[in-house]
C-alpha cells in the first residue's frame, strides 16, 4: 500500500488503521529530523521484513495472513526505547516488571497454531507490551486481553490505541479467572506459564475451540489443545521458556 492509497481512503479495518498510524509516525520522523526518529521509518522497516524472511519464512511459518501481520506490526514500538535496536532480534526482549516480549518466532508459531479466522472471538492471557495482541488484532474481529501488571496493561492500552486498534479491549486483572463476560471464546492464547491449565480458561473455551498455553514450572511445554466434549485433546507440543503466570487463586 502506498501513502497515496492511504490518503484516498481505499482501505478500512484494523490493518488499514495500523498502516495509517505507521505512515503518520514515518512522516513525523522525517519532519522532525534526527537519526533516531528517521530510523523509525527507515531501517526498522527493513529489519522487520528481514525478521519475517529469515526467522519465520525460513522456518515453518507458512500462514500468509500471519506473515503479513508480522510484516505490518511495528514491534519496536512495543519495547522500551532502550531495547528498540534489538526489537527484531531472534530472541525475547525485556519490557520491565520482570516480563518479556516473546521471540518473534514464538509469536508467529502460536498465532499460526491457533488457525484464527476473522469471525473469531479470542481471549489472550498475558498482554505484556501488547505486541501479540496487535498481531492477533489484525486477524480477528474481536480480541479480549488481560494483564495482571497494571503499568504494563496501561502502556499496552495506550500503544494499541495510538496505533488505531478499536477491536482490542485490555483489562487489568487476574488471567487465571479468564473473562467470563465475553465467553465462550473460539480461541484462547496464554503467554505466561502456569503449573497447570487453569480450569476457568477451559470452561470459557468453546467446544471445538483451540488453546495455546505454555505449562510447567521448570521444563515447560507449549501445548496446542482442542476442547472436546470429553475434555482437552493435545494436538502438538513445543519446548519453550515463558515467564511464570502469576495470580493463581
Mean pLDDT level: 86
Give the CATH level 1 class: Alpha Beta
| Contiguous runs where pLDDT drops below 50 for at least 5 residues | 1-13, 19-41
**Could you tell me the radius of gyration in angstroms?**
18 Å
Shape: globular
Structural domain count: 1
Q: Report the portion of residues in β strands.
A: 15-25%
Notes on the protein architecture:
Helix 2 runs antiparallel to helix 3 and helix 4 packs antiparallel against helix 5 (64-72). Helix content is 37%, strand content 24%. Strands 5-4-3-6-7-8-9 form a seven-stranded mixed sheet. A two-stranded antiparallel ribbon has the order 1-2. The protein has a single domain (3-240), classed as Vaccinia Virus protein VP39 (Rossmann fold), CATH 3.40.50. It has 249 residues and is of the alpha/beta class. It is built from nine helices and nine strands.
Outline of the structure:
By secondary structure, the chain is of the alpha/beta class. Helices cover 37% and strands 24% of the residues. The strands form two sheets. Strands 5-4-3-6-7-8-9 form a seven-stranded mixed β-sheet. A two-stranded antiparallel sheet has the order 1-2.
List the helices and strands and how they pair.
Blueprint: H1 3-8, H2 14-32, H3 35-41, H4 43-57, H5 64-72, E1 93-96, E2 99-101, H6 104-113, E3 121-125, H7 131-137, E4 142-147, H8 150-162, E5 168-172, E6 185-190, H9 199-203, E7 205-215, E8 220-228, E9 231-240
Parallel strand pairs: 3-4, 3-6, 4-5, 6-7
Antiparallel strand pairs: 1-2, 7-8, 8-9
Helix pairs in contact: 2-3, 4-5
Amino acid at each position: 500500500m502506498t501513502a497515496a492509497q492511504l490518503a484516498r481512503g481505499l482501505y478500512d479495518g484494523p490493518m488499514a488503521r495500523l498502516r495509517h498510524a505507521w505512515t503518520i509516525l514515518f512522516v513525523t520522523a522525517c519532519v522532525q529530523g534526527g537519526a533516531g526518529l528517521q530510523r523509525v521509518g527507515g531501517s526498522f522497516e527493513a529489519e522487520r521484513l528481514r525478521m519475517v524472511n529469515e526467522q519465520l519464512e525460513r522456518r515453518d511459518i507458512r500462514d500468509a495472513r500471519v506473515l503479513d501481520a508480522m510484516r505490518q506490526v511495528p514491534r519496536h514500538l512495543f519495547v522500551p526505547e532502550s531495547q528498540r535496536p534489538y526489537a527484531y532480534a531472534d530472541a525475547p526482549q525485556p519490557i520491565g516488571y520482570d516480563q518479556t516480549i516473546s521471540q518473534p518466532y514464538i509469536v508467529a508459531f502460536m498465532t499460526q497454531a491457533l488457525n484464527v479466522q476473522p469471525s473469531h472471538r479470542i481471549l489472550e492471557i498475558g498482554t505484556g507490551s501488547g505486541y501479540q495482541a496487535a498481531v492477533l488484532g489484525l486477524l480477528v474481529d474481536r480480541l479480549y486481553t488481560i494483564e495482571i501488571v497494571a503499568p504494563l496493561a496501561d502502556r499496552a492500552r495506550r500503544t494499541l490505541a495510538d496505533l488505531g486498534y478499536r477491536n482490542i479491549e485490555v483489562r487489568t486483572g487476574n488471567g487465571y479467572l479468564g473473562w467470563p463476560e465475553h465467553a465462550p471464546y473460539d480461541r484462547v492464547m496464554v503467554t505466561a506459564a502456569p503449573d497447570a491449565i487453569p480450569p476457568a480458561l477451559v470452561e470459557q473455551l468453546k467446544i471445538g475451540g483451540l488453546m495455546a498455553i505454555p505449562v510447567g514450572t521448570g521444563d515447560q511445554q507449549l501445548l496446542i489443545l482442542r476442547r472436546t466434549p470429553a475434555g482437552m485433546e493435545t494436538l502438538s507440543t513445543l519446548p519453550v521458556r515463558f515467564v511464570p503466570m502469576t495470580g493463581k487463586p
